[in-house]
Amino acid sequence: MRKTVFLFALLTLSLLTASAQTVTVTVSNPTAAQRQELIAIDASELPFSAKEGVIVRDAFSIEQASQLTHDGKLLLYVHVRPNGKAVFTIQPGIPAPVTSWVAGRQYPERKDDLAFENDRIGFRLYGPALQRTGEKGFGHDVWGKRTPELILDELYRHDPMLSFHLDYGKGLDCYGVGQTLGCGTPCLIRDGKIVYPWCYETYKILDKGPLRFTVQVDFAAVDGITEHRILSLDKGSNFCEATVWYDGLKKPTDIAAGLAIRPADPKPVVIGKDYVHYADPTVDPERHQFQIYSALLFPDQPVTITRQENHALGIMKGYQSGQHFHYYFGAAWSEFDVRSQGEWQLRIDGFMQAKQHPLQVTINK
């Protein structure tokens, strides 16, 4: 009898403790648009440590995917109706395994490509092994995808020269980087000219998913100047976040992020106050007969957007050494979820409006 009473008391105490550690999070949508995106909660604001894991449940008590990032943010992917509120509960615990929507790694299968993707798009950077060959790979490359599945490992398992540039049903690389800034690569501006960066020297993966992939890439010093980039790609987004800074500058310098514009097809460029986008005809338009839509977005960074040297540039004037340059670059393929440049404009408008009016998160402890 005493043992039964003790076990009952222990169970009751356990339930009370779990209840005491459960917090409710309300996510409010201040806009008249349907929203689905990642939110980031400062994990230090929770009444318990999130390092050992948390369990997140929605209004139906169904467990949801979450991620603790390298910089202490708890990520949730939410959807909230126009002017609506979504409620979640969070408590410490070991979450159930989930499928990752993002992935990335260095691919020795092809020199030392650093490639990453989410459920919409993929990107690629070139490394020191490629640079040693003398090939000039300055810019970010784009992977077109026609499936939300993660496909890069599968593509790299095959001969790159046979698989990368042809679509066998899941995606391909049909975006031409060449000796350009490609999609969203930063650069210094010297005497009014682009100073093209070469390939990354080192990298460090900071977040591996399941909701966000983050990598830091660092570049060899040139004339005492070192470049650093942190790139983050989230589930459900066509746009990669870039934070860039330079060390070793002796004086204020103009810097920029660039978007390659093909000399033979310069017309479909749309320049807004804080963005620019382009309908890229791909490397072989006559045979491909589709487009890659690219964009640069500056929701919180004052820039001057201009055309120069077969590029659209977002230029930050008077940059000082160590200062962070923040922007987004992105792409979509007409064979997948964005079928025209008009739809791409809508996707950009929605993203920029969401940045101007972020979802509001309240933690009810």
Secondary-structure topology with pairs:
Elements: H1 2-21, E1 23-28, E2 35-42, E3 54-57, E4 63-64, E5 66-68, E6 73-80, E7 85-92, E8 103-107, E9 113-117, E10 122-125, H2 128-132, E11 141-145, H3 152-156, H4 160-163, E12 171-172, E13 183-190, E14 193-195, E15 202-208, E16 212-218, E17 226-234, E18 239-247, E19 253-260, E20 269-271, E21 275-280, H5 285-288, E22 292-297, E23 304-308, E24 311-319, E25 325-333, H6 341-356, E26 360-364
Antiparallel strand pairs: 1-7, 1-26, 2-6, 3-4, 3-7, 5-6, 8-9, 9-10, 10-11, 11-12, 13-14, 13-19, 15-16, 16-17, 17-18, 18-25, 19-24, 20-21, 21-22, 22-25, 23-24
Major sheet attributes = 8 strands, antiparallel
Q: Per the principal axes of the C-alpha atoms, what is the gross shape?
A: globular
Q: In total, how many beta strands?
A: 26
What's the N-to-C terminus distance? 37 Å
Radius of gyration: 23 Å
Question: Biggest sheet, strands in spatial order?
Answer: 15-16-17-18-25-22-21-20
Low-confidence stretches at least 5 residues in length (pLDDT < 50)? 1-18
- Helical content stands at 10-25%
Secondary-structure-based class equals: mainly beta
Please report the number of helical segments: 6
- Residues in β-strands, percent: 35-45%
Overall residue-averaged pLDDT value: 91
